[in-house]
Specification:
Keywords: Hydrolase, Metalloprotease, Protease. The protein is built from eight helices and 22 strands. With about 500 residues, the chain is α+β, with helices and mostly antiparallel strands. A hairpin with a 5-residue loop joins strand 16 and strand 17.
Length: about 500
């Protein structure tokens, strides 16, 4: 899934284009005018209009959103949880996840698609392909009314290039996962197309499954592509299929960037999980962030570390881990060109960290930036609950973070980043302790600011009695005490008491 948090996007509305702020994902989203009034698309008028509430549901006023404000309308209108849940369920029923065949995967979706709760030891249920050589199939797709000037060679470089930095991208997708996994995962892609689908783009926004099925039929039946070469584990299922469609990203319906599931047998090889996103209008739009985020779901079975606002029994918005992880909203940093690293918590879960530093042993430690092979961990008295310390100073892939310094995560593989309550029953799976004490991530104020990470500190920086504290989720003293942190740099020194 790919969540949008207040980004300004352009939408067709009648005979003009308008800019709206978007909040949500492919299963439920809300839109606002730039001055904060909720907008809804009026199918009869074929334009975005001011919304009003009718029995807890957003309906159109019939007045266009860029016109005079109707009397009695207030900003930031939201639907009631029951309506949100109903709309979510309708979208889910038309998604690929409602067709998952494997009962072990269905256990992960009691009220919908991949959730923020990782039921498989912190990860999403399903077979991982997070190590070894994996060859993905990437298909470029045009519509009858939308073509692209982006070539397969352009995408090939974005995905596989060794020294790729076009458009300000930090690296290629292959290089990103090579860095994050300490060379344990070599993920490259075979790029084909563009192929052309028979209908216009709007048709595919709302139809249940024709985009994926029509594209795959062309790939296998017309282009004669042998899917078995994309099955690295020889299990009869393609490891990774990626669809990149022509034009700018459409944050509506079935064209919203997402990771989903489509199973069909082609000559003895089945399709399975796939990713869908946009190519952009031209080569200057190409960025790696969303592709990397969706690949995190696809290959590694990473859960999202952000809050959907309507999953896992919770209907309160928060930001989860924010921009401090690829699987939060960090895929959008630098317009997607310098995505945030995968946080140490998730790297550790998939076995990419060969070295574990036990912070339960008192002493002085040097926390190195970019040491993706190491996890610095303090274990609490509770099984599956622990703290991780990571250097997130402003270098390399961390260059576009709003804060620079020491990141301290409070982790529990049985938590959910939907749960911002901070108690034993309901808490984040991976919470960033925010140095400024404001709890902006939990309170949905922002997805990261300059006060989040720990800078230079003399004396006690973190303990049972500080704010934020190192208390366990049940309020008991974990015993974790950090003092005398050095200034943000390639090496940050700390003392554990």
């Amino acid at each position: 899934m790919s969540k949008i948090v207040g980004e300004i996007l352009t939408f067709p509305s009648g005979n003009e284009n308008i800019k709206l702020r978007v909040f949500g994902d492919e299963f439920y989203a809300r839109r606002e005018s730039l001055d904060g009034y909720t907008a809804i698309y009026d199918n009869n008028l074929e334009k975005y209009c001011y919304a009003k509430l009718d029995n807890g549901k957003l309906v159109s006023t019939g007045e266009k959103i860029n016109g005079p404000i109707p009397s009695g309308i207030t900003p930031h209108l939201k639907e009631v949880p029951e309506v949100i849940k109903e709309k979510f369920q309708q979208q889910y029923e038309n998604s690929g996840y409602s067709n998952i065949e494997d009962i072990n995967l269905k256990k992960n979706t009691d009220d919908g698609v991949n959730k923020t709760k990782g039921d498989n030891k912190g990860l999403l249920t399903g077979d991982r392909s997070s190590e070894g050589k994996v060859l993905g199939l990437t298909i470029l797709v045009e519509f009858s009314d939308v073509s692209t000037t982006v070539t397969s060679q352009d995408v090939e470089q974005m995905l596989n290039g060794e020294n790729y930095n076009e458009n300000g991208n930090y690296c290629s997708v292959k290089k990103y996962f090579n860095i994050m996994s300490n060379e344990k995962l070599e993920y490259s892609n075979h790029v084909i197309g563009p192929i052309k689908l028979p209908h216009n783009r709007d048709y595919y926004m709302n139809a249940p499954f024709p985009f994926v099925e029509e594209a795959m039929n062309i790939v296998v039946n017309d282009l004669k592509i042998d899917l078995s070469i994309y099955d690295s584990k020889r299990r009869g299922i393609v490891d990774a299929i990626n669809f990149l469609y022509a034009g700018q990203t459409v944050y509506q319906g079935k064209l919203w960037p997402h990771n989903s599931y489509f199973s069909k047998d082609y000559n003895g090889i089945k399709t399975g999980f796939y990713m869908l996103s946009s190519l952009g209008r031209n080569v200057s739009d190409i960025s790696i962030g969303t592709f990397c985020h969706e690949t995190g779901h696809l290959l590694c079975r990473f859960p999202d570390l952000y809050d959907y606002g309507n999953r896992d029994g919770d209907y309160v918005d928060s930001e989860g881990i924010g921009v401090y992880c690829l699987m939060g909203s960090g895929n959008h940093l630098n317009k997607g060109r310098t995505p945030s690293p995968i946080c140490a918590y998730l790297r550790d879960l998939v076995g990419w960290c060969d070295k574990e530093i036990n912070l339960n042993n008192k002493g002085s430690y040097t926390i190195k930036h970019g040491d993706y092979n190491t996890v610095n961990k303090y274990n609490t008295s509770k099984e599956n609950e622990y703290f991780i310390v990571e250097n997130r100073a402003s270098f390399d892939l961390d260059s576009y973070l709003p804060s620079s310094g020491l990141a301290i995560y409070h982790c529990d593989i049985k938590g959910s980043n939907e749960w911002q309550e901070d108690n034993l029953a309901y808490h984040y799976q991976c919470a960033l302790l925010q140095s400024d004490r404001n709890l902006d991530l939990e309170r949905n104020v922002n997805n990261g600011d300059k006060g989040d990470l720990f800078g230079q500190g003399n004396g006690i920086v973190l303990s049972n009695s500080t704010i934020p504290s190192s208390k366990e989720w049940d309020g008991s003293d974990s015993g974790f005490i950090i003092s005398n942190t050095s200034e943000p740099n390639i090496n940050i020194k700390i003392e554990v008491l």
